[in-house]
Amino acid sequence: MLVIGAFSAAAEPAPQAIPQSTQEFTEAGGWFGKFLPPSPGAVPAQLPFSFAYDGKPSAELLPGWSVRHTQRDLDAQRREAVATYTDLKSGLEVRCVAVGYRDFPTVEWTVYFKNTGKADTPILAGIQALDARWERAGADEFLLHHEFGTFYPNSPTDFMPQESRLEPSQSKRFIPYKGRACADVMPYFNLETSKSSGVIVVVGWPGAWAAEFARDAKTGVHVTAGQELTHLRLHPGEEIRTPLMALQFWRGDWIRAQNIWRRWMTMHNLPPSGGRPPRPAFAGSSGEFFDNMVQADEASQLLFIDRYREEKLPLDYWWMDAGWYVNNGRWQEPIVWQADPKRFPHRLRSITDHAHALGIKSIVWFEPERVMPSNAIYSAHPDWLIANHISKRLSKLLYLDNPAAQAWLTDLVDRLVTEEGIDVYRHDFNVLEPVEIWRSNDAVDRQGITENHHIVGYLAHYDEVQRRHPGLVIDSCAGGGSRIDLESMRRSLPFWRSDYCYDFVSNQCQTYGLALWLPFHGTATGPKQFSLYQLRSNFTCPLIIGSWDMRDRTLPYDVFRKAVREWRGYAENYSGDFYPLTPPSLGADVWLAWQFDRPEAGRGVVQAFRRAESIYETARVKLRGLDPAARYALTDLDHPGNPREFTGRELMDTGLELALTERPGSAVITYEKLPGR
Final residue of a domain: which of 448, 477, 493? Predict the structure, then answer.
């Protein structure tokens, strides 16, 4: 038997909710207080951001600048503090907008720089949205939890969790691949300052950010984060901003901290769908069989939708991916953003209307920022586009700081959403080196300005589209998971988390890694993944995508129905707390297991996978988050006629024994808290 106990904890939180200590709130409140004056007109000491202006550090400059402060309640749980510093000589205004949370030990802020003068400012450089130090609590060394991002071109290690011990006088610096915000590395970090305390540090910036954790020779660590490159002047009236910074303070253990983070993400960040948090959803697509949508037509889409219904595989979404528009026979080359009249004589509306009549919503793909030479606006509006002067690619970037370009895009999406009955605006971004485009269009004294303005325009586009269509969901595809930073996740959802999506072992680990940070993400089944092990490896997210050839009536539909039916029965648990039960691994000789727990509902699910070369037929895992005194009824979905009962204490201390004779094999165990006896 394989016994796995490394991820258990001695002390468990109460089942009704993960408690948050007074100390956690005190630490968060202390950071919020950094943005408030110690006395009227005074500058708070040790502001948690920094910059250089005309060669001088902000710590020296700000005490001599004019300052004003305001506060207001945004709602019952959020209080905003705005601190504005103005250099009366040059007119540079530095405005920091901070938000403190009353229901979570979390504080966030964004810093804005505006030239209110009549001439260009001196050079503004080295802007750090976060510039802070933490001291080690006790003898334990700092331990940093972080994750790989999504790799280009593809990698099975996407979102694999990592740990780095921060040794004295050493540093760890993180920069995403060429400006793709979540490429190679994720902008989410959890710093353990001791074995029982720490701080989560998150950078919200869908562009080229940088974060560094630098140990000193004694007991401290210096943490900086911000846009990777800033060395620029601001023109009169011009404004830029820093990345959004979010800190969450914690006591207990780092997994408990991740679950408080997940709850904060759900309550205060994830964009609602129909006025409520996003629900688990099953989507269908025919893209694997029609070169995405390049060879698809109206008849094929209606056929697939009806076949799902015929096979009793109820869909929540119908997915129409790249290629539905007029193109040159390649999905990357839209000529004009309208449904190809040869293949879709009644536009997409006939398909979305048919789906809506069956209670199915629609997902439609766009990639508006990458503009190919075949696209009509390439020659019609060259003033809207910027080119890569480094790699000399033919494609150009629709520059979203250009008011006309941003208005055109927003009006286009607005019109097509209305006319075609689109429920999910799927926004892709396959620009491989955006940082090269941005920087090759910067002047020497304006480094970082093109990126900053484009990012602000991108976020403004999302905000305006959703203002016009409050019920619209945005899918942040972006080449598969490269824009799942905090700012993007406040406006969109990652329906397609990685382009490395059909490797079931990698998918298990992707779920494991992303579940630590994001309560909602989606992936697809492969067109030839038919076994329960394969399906369950992918049916692990709040959103799953069926990619089967529904024209083939010989497929194992009984297996599909069983997997989907089971998944619908336990998928609500993905909104709960996440507990890893084994270490993460891509190894072929291991077990991988996790638990999702909803203490408020008294329910949860354990999912386990025995890999193809594991010699162990049984494994014992220790559950977490349960009520020690309560009894729980456990049901193995492969053997539903043999339910078992355990106390919460037994499941957490002794553990749950799992048995799988097949290699590879999978188990799904649901549990429910029984009424008191």
Answer: 493
As a whole number of angstroms, the distance between CA 106 and CA 262 comes to: 12
Burial degree of 125 (CB within 10 A; 0-12, 13-18, 19+): middle
Domain annotation covers residue 315 = no
Half-sphere exposure of 545 (CA within 13 A, CB side): 24
Helix pair angle (349-357, 298-310), 10° resolution: 10
Please state at what angle helix 403-420 crosses helix 349-357, rounded to 10 degrees.
50
Same domain, 78 and 212: yes
pLDDT at 45: 66
Separation CA 568–CA 535 (nearest Å): 13
pLDDT tens track for 391-416: 989 999 999 999 999 999 999 999 99
For residue 141, CA distances in Å to 132, 171, 219, 255, 290 come to 18, 13, 8, 18, 54
Nearest by Cα to 597 from 563, 623, 565, 628: 623
Task: Give the model's pLDDT for residue 40.
Answer: 67
The CA distance from 507 to 501, in Å, is 6
CB 544 within 8 A of CB 283: yes
Angle at 275 between CA 269 and CA 280, to 5 degrees: 75
Number of H helices, E strands in the chain: 15, 40
* 254 and 374 assigned to the same domain: no
Residues 66 and 103 in one domain: yes
Rounded-to-integer distance, Cα 554 and Cα 528, Å: 13
The pLDDT of residue 288 is 94
Kindly state the tokens that stand for 263.
């709850």
Please choose, from the candidates 608, 582, 611, 604, the residue with its C-alpha nearest in 3D space to the C-alpha of residue 648: 604
pLDDT of 329 reads 94
Sequence length of the chain is 677
The pTM score is 0.96
Token pair recorded at residue 260: 């408080």
Beta bridge partners of 188: 202
140 pLDDT tier (thresholds 50, 70, 90) = confident
Q: For residues 614 and 590, is the Cβ–Cβ distance under 8 A?
A: yes
386 and 489, same structural domain?
A: yes
* 244 vs 454: CA distance, rounded Å: 16
pLDDT greater than 60 at residue 9: no
Look at residues 215, 133, 209, 222 and name the one whose alpha carbon lies nearest to residue 175.
209
Where are the extended beta strands (E) located within 404-514? 424-427, 446-447, 473-476
Distance, in Å, from the CA atom of 463 to the CA atom of 459, rounded to the nearest integer, reads: 6
Phi/psi of residue 470, each to 5°?
-60, -30
**pLDDT tens profile 464-514:** 999 999 999 999 999 999 999 999 999 999 999 999 988 999 999 999 999
- Which residue range(s) make up the domain with 233? 22-268
Among 293, 268, 320, CA closest to 489? 268
- Name the nearest CA neighbour of 486 among 246, 273, 250, 256: 246
Cα gap 123→616, rounded to integer Å: 63
